[in-house]
Design brief:
By secondary structure, the chain is mostly helical. It has a domain of about 40 residues. It starts with 12 loop residues before the first helix and ends with a helix. The relative contact order is 0.04.
């Protein structure tokens, strides 16, 4: 049987308000204790893997499949932590120009979409101009 130990924790009202706001958006945490327990254990896991929180690092979410792959690479000691593995593959994709190729492909889609929108706008403007000319012609013919 698992028994919980009660502890006291001092945090500012602002921090508590932030936790409460988070809990409203994340009902999977039933209580503050559930959330604080989870967050503490996650932080321990991060620190155990050697991942230091750095102000210049942007936290990202990756899907479970990729996270498992990176974790496996850490477990077999190819990398010391997940950050190192992810950065390695990102750097390699830049060095081999794969990232630029993928970005170009993505941007082509946006450029094509922009052209399509511009063409449609031009079509609407031409149509409106033609309609205005026709109405002017009709008015001229009535005189």
């Amino acid at each position: 049987m698992k028994t919980d130990t009660k502890i006291s924790l001092r945090i500012s009202q602002v921090e508590l308000d932030n936790i409460d706001d988070f809990l409203v958006r994340h009902p999977e945490f039933k209580t503050r204790s559930d959330f604080i327990r989870y967050a503490t254990m996650k932080q321990l896991e991060i620190m155990e893997r050697g991942q230091q929180i750095d102000e210049e690092i942007v936290p990202i979410r990756i899907n479970k499949k990729f996270r498992d792959i990176f974790s496996d690479l850490v477990d077999i000691h190819l990398f010391s932590n997940i950050d190192e593995a992810v950065n390695f593959f990102l750097e390699r994709s830049v060095q081999t120009n794969k990232l630029n190729e993928e970005l170009s492909t993505l941007m082509q889609g946006f450029i094509s979409t922009d052209k399509l929108i511009d063409n449609y706008k031009s079509y609407l403007e031409d149509r409106a101009t033609s309609r205005m000319k026709k109405e002017k012609g009709d008015m001229h013919d009535r005189k």
